[in-house]
Amino acid sequence: MSKGPLIVMTGATSGIGQIAAIEMAKRGAHLVLTARNKERAKATEELIKEASPETNVDFYFGDLSIMKDVRCMGLEIKQNYSKIDILIHNAGLHRFEHCVTSEGFSEMVAVSYLAPWLLTNTLKDSLVKAENAKIINVASEASRNHGDLKLPYDLTDISPFTVRGSSKIYGKTKLLNIMFTGELARQFSDTKVIANAINPGFNNTGLGRDLRLSTVLGKFFKLVNIGNPKRGADIIIRLAFDPEYDNVTGGYFNVGTGAKIDPIYPGKDVFMQQRLWINTKELLLRYLT
Predict the structure, then answer these.
(1) Separation of alpha carbons 78 and 122, rounded Å
(2) SS3 35
(3) Cis-peptide, bond into residue 160, ω within 30° of zero
(4) Contact 269, 176 (CB under 8 A)
(5) What angle do CA 134, 140, 141 make, to 5 degrees?
(6) How far apart are CA 175 and CA 177, in angstroms?
(7) Which of 79, 88, 245 is nearest to 177 (CA)?
(8) What is the pLDDT of residue 2?
(9) Are residues 78 and 120 in contact, defined by beta-carbon separation less than 8 angstroms?
(10) Across residues 1-29, what is the average pLDDT?
């Protein structure tokens, strides 16, 4: 029986999320994980149980690129867990091919930014009811290659892009994660909930799996020990469990050292953070009601 914190995490069936889930299970956490693929979920649960047989693991299924699914998963989780100690937004996507969801959003923006925003706001009551709850957003230094941020245009931009152009869109989603974190800290300022972002570094996890060379490159990086996802998982674990971060909110922390990073403009610009929050709320209002 799990005796540690109740942790909700996205993106736990592969990469750094799966490694982090296993490590958190060893620390006694009750894991509540989202997944799209039931076979991957089952395989992940088996790995977790192998490492920590007594761990409670619950899966909720849906597609993070579809806001209706995100809202449904959030409501189910909220109904079943009145208190959530830690919420980790780990799922991310780097698409090299243009893809628009059935709801009309860019898939990269939907998975990496809109889903975390909607899930957090759906679960806010359960976070507030917990003692000193934490929100951890997995961002990236890829945010420094974000091009020109235009709000609210970038939230609904579905213009076609090339493989090369995809990097700027991915970087933009990670910049949005950082800005979202800063505003979250203010939104929860009258509670005991804290919110921080991390840079997990380069991780060889299949994030851009639709690129033909990704499998070959992944095998090469693994062979030469580049992009070991354990490093990225470690910084998630530190933010979740290390007392050093218990009283810090609105920060952005680096893989390895755990030191605070100063994000690129407009990452910590208060006006832009607030504008992003308002624009996103207006965009997703129909999914909140």
Answers:
(1) 8
(2) strand
(3) no
(4) no
(5) 135
(6) 5
(7) 88
(8) 63
(9) no
(10) 94
Q: What is the DSSP string of 200-218?
A: -----S-TTTTSTTHHHHH
Q: How far apart are CA 154 and CA 86, in angstroms?
A: 29
The single residue listed with the structure tokens 């957090």 is: 120
Alpha-carbon span 100 to 9, nearest angstrom:
24
User: Coil, helix or strand for 108?
Assistant: helix
Tokens at residue 41, please? 């979920």
Alpha helix positions (H), the chain: 15-26, 38-51, 67-80, 107-109, 115-122, 124-129, 153-156, 163-187, 214-223, 229-241, 270-288
Strands 6-9 and 86-89: parallel
- How far apart, in Å, do the first and last CA atoms of the chain sit? 36
Q: Which pair of structure tokens corresponds to residue 75? A: 């409501």
Task: Locate the domains of the chain by residue range.
Answer: 6-288
What CA–CA distance (Å, rounded) separates 185 from 8?
18
Nearest to 62 by CA among 133, 95, 110: 110
| Superfamily per CATH, domain 6-288 | NAD(P)-binding Rossmann-like Domain (3.40.50.720)
The two tokens of residue 146 are 């974000």
pLDDT tens digit string along 79-106?
999 999 999 999 999 999 989 999 999 9
Coil/strand/helix, residue 90: coil
The owner of tokens 């390895």 is 256
Q: At what angle do helices 270-288 and 163-187 cross, to 10 degrees?
A: 90
> How confident is the model over 176-199, as a mean pLDDT?
98
Residue 162: burial class (beta carbons within 10 Å; 0-12, 13-18, 19+): exposed
Give the residue carrying structure tokens 């755990």. Answer: 258
DSSP 147: -
pLDDT > 80? residue 37: yes
- Cβ proximity of 60 and 73 under 8 Å: yes
